[in-house]
Amino acid sequence: MKDKNLRFPKIPFRTPGGARVPHRKHTADKQSVIMPTPDEVIIPMSQHIGAPCKVQVAVGDAVCVGTVIGDSDAFVCAPIHSSVSGTVKSITKLTMPSGAVTDAVVIESDGKDTADPDIKPPVVENLQDFLSAVRASGLVGLGGAGFPAHVKLNVPADKEIDTLIINCAECEPYITADNREVIENSWAVMSGVYSVLELLGIDRVIIGIENNKPEAIRILTEIAENEKYDPEDKVRVLPLKASYPQGAEKVLIKACTGREVPTGKLPADAGCIVMNVTSIAFISDYLKTGMPLTKKRITVDGSAIKEPQNVIVPIGTPINKVIEFCGGYKAEPGKILMGGPMMGIALIDDTLPVLKQNNAVLAFDEKEARLSEPTDCIRCGRCVSACPMRLMPTRLCADVKLKDFDAMRKHQIMTCMECGSCAYSCPAHRHIVQTIRLGKSQLRAELAKKKGDK
Amino acid sequence: MSKFFASASPHLRSTASTRKIMLDVVIALVPSCIAAVVYFGWRALMLLGVCVLTCVFTEYICRIVMKREQTIGDLSAVVTGVLLALNLPANLNPLMAVFGSVAAIVVVKQMFGGIGMNFVNPALAARIILTVSFPTAMTTWIPTSLQGVDAVTSATPLASESGAFSYLELFLGNHGGSMGETCALAILLGGIYLVLRKVIVPTIPVVYIGTSAVMALLLGLDPLEQVLSGGIMLGAVFMATDYTTSPITKWGKVIYAIGCGVLTMLIRTYANLPEGVSFSILIMNILTPLIESATAPRAFGEKKERQGAK
User: Fold this and answer.
1) Which of B12, B129, B185, B193 could form a disulfide with A341 if both were Cys (CB 3.0 to 4.6 A apart)?
2) For residue A43, which of A9, A80, A73, A71 has the smallest C-alpha distance?
3) Phi and psi dihedrals of A275, rounded to 5?
């Protein structure tokens, strides 16, 4: 049963904690640049949460832009497409930033960027068609998580969804890719919103966006408030306080609806679906053209980058080629990040390819690369007031040190989303996130062992 | 190919550091130190110097003996030294001050593992150790340089008849007492600085002082006089807010500060002691772990959320 009294919040609901991280959105006002097709792309078979794809091509095969090169029968999986036209040069093993080893297809580009002849706009008449189309598009959560979009949109029958939240918070420092998407592709954003709300029968769409993006807010509000496009006033823009981690799914749901996703549950349990703004724009583009996800806009920035900017690159382009395109390094790079500085992963190799869910590549000079050595905790409580999940990070660290699994569970260690607000705020520079992450994996192993014993 | 430095996220840190926090506390204590020197002259300056030097030197030796990394650079020993000095009468024998400083650093702080590990406030514990060891010396107050020179000793407002000092005299600190606790104005300035610099949140000082005033009313005393006399101001702003020995939870701070205020006024009124601030904060320090676990916040999504907002 739908709630007839569903209203839009005038101001965002209060969310706990948060850290005042610097914005450093240097590239916010710069037009994105399209990078020329590289000579070679490396496309890993695992670019999403879920089962890795199986390689669908053989060495020597000719492929076009948009040709399926990886797929699997698993439900939680998204197909992978070639981002260039050319020939499959080899199929290798690649160590991903997370440490997992996966198959990767190396394709030599012929420089022509011929689109696959089979590509045509999908015919969407009902929800089922729509979900199949989204799966075929290869879309995963483009905000960084990489969760297959068709799985997210396929809401179980027993869950009542009344709100679609468009995540345009972009709270990580440096990253402006979503901001540029809104400015350069605003019509696609809004038409994507209208398609999804119609197909899923949703009455309320809230576009959550941090108030440090005034231009994007203005553009979206103009369209959403126009009666011609939104006659029933189902879509509204909600400017949010620019406070990290405003774009974390649970925090965003709380800010937009006042609801808390119960521990261990999904947004659907709070009646919400959250979609990244670039994902929603991509859905609109895909429904029009049928061109699957083969390109991605990424923010290239950091103290070691000569010309920081947003670049639209074919997926699978080696990171060092992208950096070369941005004028190369202006200082000896000490650290390369895939993603933002708060939750991104440090790479040990800059020849790794750009993935679907990447939204930034950051390179820092030697000075910024190294962090201070940790000293003793002075119990100042900054980690506690910074935690958006209302945990007590310093207490969790003590639990992990003692390997006290009961205490870890009691103190809700699994609720930690590793956003880094605690470690950012810590004056003793303690490795809080690292310690909690260790505790979580030890606890998982312990629980698995107990299950096995029974 | 150059090697990249890999580390776990987050890769960005705030500019806060333990040293900067401690430096801010020292800066916040400067007005009180100036007031002490103005009222009590060179002896105050000497005691400040003795306490700070002894604390830092003792910590230095301790870390070497304990074979731990050196920590005097974090300035926490300086804070302990200044706080201890401000809790002493100006005419105390410097050797007694040395004894108190060594006790604070060795017994209270380093034996429990150093910064962040002590279960009671080192300066406060040292004051109590000194009071118990040298009860006469610790409660003999000399007059301020602005009071009459003919007086040999000066009574503190708490030991005098109510109304012996005007509110203004109490606020400015022109009366007998420990070096740093007489001038409420200087303490207030320091407290405001700490709040503005976000070193402390005002919860503990406000609730502590507020509770004391309410208790004074209930006990039939003059609330303003009670709050401005003795160590409540210094205790509430600088001693009770010590990170290590006060709860880190929001509601924990409230309960802790109420406890401090209630105990202070009960000790002042009913116990055979002239002053209750030290003991009440000490007792609440010990209760801090209990208060903290009882006031741990409800984790996000824990239990069923009220179906309020739509």
Assistant:
1) B12
2) A80
3) -130, 140
State the distance between the two ends of chain A, measured CA to CA, in whole angstroms: 42
Q: Which residues of B touch A257 (CB under 8 A)?
A: 309-310
On the question of pLDDT at B147 being above 90, the answer is no
Give the nearest chain A residue to B1 (CA atoms). Answer: A349
Instruction: Report residue A14 as tokens.
Output: 């209060």
Closest in A19, A261, A343 to B301, CB measured: A261
CB contact under 8 A, B5 and A262: no
- The pLDDT mean for chain A works out to 93
Helix, strand or coil for residue A207?
strand
Please, are residues A212 and A242 in contact by the beta-carbon 8 Å criterion?
yes
How far is the C-alpha of B310 from the C-alpha of B307, rounded, in Å?
A: 8
Cα B81 to the center of its chain, rounded Å: 11
- Does B294 lie at the interface with A, CB-CB under 8 angstroms? no
Do residues B84 and B123 touch, judged by C-beta distance below 8 A?
A: yes
Token representation of residue B147: 């009071």
* Alpha-carbon gap: A136 to the closest alpha carbon of chain B (Å): 33
Distance from the A254 Cα atom to the nearest Cα atom in chain B, whole angstroms: 10
Report the alpha-carbon distance of residue A328 to residue A316 in Å, rounded: 18
B95 touches chain A (CB under 8 A): no
Nearest CA among B49, B278, B85, B54 for reference residue B180: B85
Measure the CA–CA gap between A229 and A191, rounded to whole angstroms: 9
Residue A186 neighbours by CB under 8 Å, 6+ apart: A219, A220, A223
B221-253 per-position pLDDT tens digit = 999 999 998 899 999 999 999 999 999 999 999
The H or E element spanning position B184 is helix B184-196
Enclosing H/E stretch for B78:
helix B76-86
For the stretch A60-97, pLDDT in tens is 999 999 999 999 999 999 999 999 999 999 999 999 88
* Residues A343-371: tens digit of each pLDDT: 999 998 889 999 999 999 999 998 888 88
Residue B37 to residue B48: CA distance in whole angstroms: 9
Residues with Cβ within 8 Å of A27's Cβ and at least 6 positions away in sequence, in order, are A174, A176, A180, A299, A301, A308, A309, A310
Contact B11 A335 (CB under 8 A): yes
Whole-prediction pTM = 0.92
Highest CATH level, class, for A127-289: alpha beta
Q: Which residue of A has its CA nearest to B9?
A: A343
Report which DSSP code applies to B291: H
Domains of chain A: which residue ranges?
127-289, 382-453
Q: Strands of B189-257 (E only): list them.
A: none
Contact between chains at B9 and A265 (C-beta distance less than 8 A): no
| Amino acid, single-letter form, for residue B136 | T
Please name the member of B9, B12, B76 whose beta carbon is closest to the beta carbon of A173. Answer: B12
